[in-house]
Design brief:
The structure holds 2 protein chains of 2 kinds. Chain A is mainly alpha-helical. Chain A has 6 helices and no strands. Chain A is 78% helix and 0% strand. Classes of the chains: A mainly alpha, B mainly alpha.
């Protein structure tokens, strides 16, 4: 009998909220996708016939926009928890705005890349930049969509509930994730 | 202490179950308000499982029928095929003497679609989709999946993928015909073959939707297993089915995004003029502008999914077989933990062997050595599993039902097909054997027939759980013996063809005098294939007949199994258990313990009794 008691019974619901856990799994899938793309980049580069060029600096500066939005997202969540309604609303709006700004600046950066003679359909070294940063932008766009829903909620009647808290946590987790993903990608582009 | 306990599931669940206040909030049945939301857009895992199964069976018939048609071409090239003209239309050309010939490009389309349909739609969605949905919530003791809504989407994305693929079969230019692996340049240049245009566009679209379906499903399965287990159900008390679905889902989550990335680059090459996979090429009387692409890159990305994919197919079958063998031999599964660890090892190794599909693609031979070694190491956990299945059967009180026969047949097929894997895993032998019928024989036995046997074992065994009736046992046994003998008759001779160097996928061997003496062998294979196909039709008839007219299930636990799905009412509502959720007190393989036939997982431990499951 003792043998069975020494291990505490597993709770019906685990430590993690199922939705959070599902998000982690989805992020694992996304990580695999970008690993595949960057691995393809390395393999293709090693094969030769590879155009070397300088990446427009805007890609690098744009990283700061995304990092800033992660910071504001975090403080918006903190303000929500402290029931500082106006700060929460303001920071949520700023986060959303920075997210949109990042996407706009990425489009500008792609145009700069094209202007320096690295088009999408040229040497694969350029095509990879477009496709990888474009795939990333698509994931950011998904995050911006989620932020928009959060914005709508924020500017509606304020309510402090575990459900809303969870929603903000989920959106923020994903948002920090696409942020870190971009930092990885920009370092990868610079080092490669 | 023999026979001192009673196993009235209702009493046990009521006395020891877990109260989750299911009835305090009355949304439990809100999804069953109308026909449409109950049977069509259902969020109930039991309905979704049946949807996956029946859709999979439809695709199974379509895919198998295709193989019969192209086998007719290979086995009887001198016979007229004009009688299939009503079905295939312009793909059969009939000359003045009334002799009908299958168009070569459609032969390749049939081979391509047969592979795509069977690998993805039948053996991934139809097998893993069906049984993960049916068994995960039941066997871990959950009301439903973590997200029933995403689970419903998982099915409908699969359905949509199927609709698009089905539509592509009727294109005037034909469906994609460049092989199920969709290697460039056939998959990129519309001018490369008639199926490379619209056919390939729809193929890619369909498979991208399919990837979404697999990911939504897989995320749900893993989350449900890790977060929704009932009280007492620790990981070491999970049936091997659940372990198998768990590892399968993880493989899917990690490998399908890589395929998506590969497809994404492919689409860019097709539509945006990039050159990831195609290099300087002269096609259709014209030199294209593409520079610097590498078709090998696609192969790497494809097989990084492609190899885990074969385990995504076979692991669920292994789980189903483990469970069915234990129940029907009335013995605990031999080496439960070894079974789990070997599945984990197979899952891990499946990610570092992909280039063994590319030995002859110009991969560096030194690199090949690495992949040879890891490929051969997979034989170790596979052998552990085979050993454990056989020792589970050893001295068991085996009940030879259709389900257990198919489970035993699975072990036979897995051994036969697995051994030839050791041949093919050697890069030197691959010089002779690659792209021959030896490869066809190997993978059809080990992941085609074997996975089907696992699926059949599952269908016969869990049919009462799905429909409250039994399938006809006699027809089931005819189905088993015919398929066992027939499948070996189809694929065993192919080893000889392959060793002699007969290449796969060829439309005709008329110009190869070397292979002329194989004509009769090819006829034999084709006849056997038609017999096997007829037996699968018999299975489908038995299936649908039994849904309406089969023997009615009278007791909750007809097989005397220990797992939780048999504690729920025969006609289980959405939410599975009407009252409390059963709590678990022991591992799932207490058969023949202390002189008792079986002890269900919900039975509390007697005083001084020790549980295996921790």
């Amino acid at each position: 009998m003792e043998a069975t008691i020494k291990r505490a019974p597993v709770q019906y619901t685990g430590k993690w909220h199922p939705k959070k856990f599902a998000l982690v799994l989805a992020m694992a899938g996304i990580i695999m996708m970008f690993s595949a793309l960057t691995s393809a980049y390395i393999v293709r580069k090693a094969a030769g016939n590879w155009l070397e060029f300088k990446l427009p600096a805007l890609f690098l500066y744009n990283t700061l926009v995304l990092i800033a939005s992660s910071v504001t997202a975090h403080f918006a969540y903190r303000a929500y928890n402290r029931e500082e309604v106006s700060t929460y609303r303001m920071l949520t709006a700023v986060t959303f705005g920075l997210g949109v700004l990042f996407l706009v600046l990425q489009v500008v950066a792609w145009n700069q890349l094209k202007a320096i003679g690295v088009p999408l359909d040229g040497n694969p070294s350029g095509s990879f930049i477009y496709v990888i940063s474009g795939t990333h932008a698509a994931h950011v766009l998904g995050g911006v969509g989620a932020l928009f829903l959060g914005l709508k909620t924020a500017f509606g009647p304020y309510k402090h509930s575990s459900g809303r808290k969870l929603s903000i946590q989920l959106v923020n987790t994903y948002w920090h994730f696409v942020d870190v993903l971009w930092i990885y990608l920009i370092i990868f582009f610079i080092l490669q | 202490m023999a026979n001192t306990r009673t196993y009235d599931e209702d009493v046990l669940t009521e006395e020891h179950g877990f109260e989750d206040h299911f009835h305090d909030h009355h949304h439990g049945d809100k999804y069953q308000t109308s026909f449409l939301t109950h049977y069509i857009f259902s969020q109930d895992h039991k309905i979704i499982a049946r949807q996956f199964l029946i859709t999979g069976m439809f695709w199974g018939l379509v895919g198998a029928l295709m193989s019969v048609i192209f086998r007719l071409q290979v086995g009887f090239p001198e016979e007229s095929l004009s009688w299939i003209k009503p079905l295939l239309g312009k793909w059969i050309t009939v000359n003045e003497e009334g002799f009908g010939t299958l168009a070569p490009e459609f032969y390749y389309a049939l081979v391509t679609m047969h592979g795509t349909i069977l690998v993805f739609f039948v053996l991934t969605a139809g097998l893993s989709g069906t049984f993960s949905n049916l068994l995960i919530p039941f066997q871990v003791g959950a009301r439903d999946m973590a997200s029933p809504l995403l689970n419903m989407f998982s099915y409908w994305f699969f359905f949509l993928a199927g609709v698009i693929m089905f539509y592509s079969l009727f294109l005037s230019t034909g469906p994609f015909a460049g092989g199920w692996t969709a290697y460039p340049p056939l998959s990129i240049l519309p001018q490369a073959s008639s199926g490379s245009g619209a056919g390939m566009t729809l193929w890619t679209l369909s498979l991208v939707l399919f990837v979404v379906s697999v990911l939504l499903g897989g995320i749900n399965y893993v989350t449900t297993i890790l977060n929704m287990r009932t009280k007492g159900m620790n990981m070491w008390r999970m049936p091997l089915t659940i372990w198998a679905f768990f590892i399968t889902a993880i493989l899917g989550i990690l490998s399908f995004p890589v395929l998506a990335a590969g497809f994404f680059l492919l689409m860019c090459d097709r539509t945006l003029g990039t050159s990831f996979y195609i290099s300087e090429i002269f096609v259709g009387g014209q030199a294209l502008e593409n520079v610097g692409g590498s078709p090998i890159l696609y192969q790497h990305l494809f097989w990084f999914l492609g190899h885990p994919e074969v385990y995504i197919i076979i692991l669920p079958a292994m789980g189903l077989v483990s469970e069915v063998l234990a129940v029907h031999s009335r013995k605990p599964i031999f080496g439960y933990k070894a079974m789990v660890f070997s599945m984990l090892a197979i899952g891990f190794l499946s990610f570092i062997v992909w280039a063994h599909h590319m030995f002859m693609s110009g991969v560096n031979p030194f690199l090949s050595n690495f992949f040879v070694v890891f490929t051969l190491i997979i034989a170790v956990p596979s052998a552990v599993k085979v050993f454990n299945w056989i020792t589970t059967l050893y001295k068991g009180n085996i009940r030879y039902t259709a389900a257990s026969l198919f489970a035993i047949g699975f072990v036979s097929m897995f051994i036969s097909g697995g051994l030839t894997g050791i041949f093919l895993g050697n890069s030197t032998l691959d010089i002779q054997l690659h792209d021959t019928y030896f490869v066809v024989a190997h993978f059809h036995i080990v992941m085609g027939v074997a996975a089907f046997f696992g699926m059949f074992a599952g269908v016969y065994h869990w049919f009462p759980r799905m429909f409250g009736r039994f399938m006809n046992e006699t027809l089931g046994k005819v189905h088993f013996w015919g398929t066992l003998v027939g499948a070996y008759a189809v694929f065993w001779p192919m080893h000889y063809l392959g060793m002699a160097g007969v290449p796969r996928r060829y439309y005709s061997f008329d110009n190869f005098d070397t292979f002329a003496h194989f004509d009769n062998m090819n006829k034999f294979i084709t006849i056997a294939a038609m017999v096997v196909f007829a037996l699968q039709v018999l299975f489908v008839i038995n299936f649908f007949y039994s849904i309406f007219k089969g023997k009615v299930q009278k007791t909750k636990n007809p097989w005397g199994a220990t797992t939780l799905e048999w504690t729920a009412p025969i006609d289980a509502p959405h939410g599975n258990w009407p009252g409390k959720i059963p709590a678990v007190h022991r591992w799932p393989y207490d058969y023949g313990k202390d002189g008792e036939d079986f002890i269900p997982q919900i039975a509390p431990l007697a005083e001084g009794e020790k549980d295996h499951g921790h």
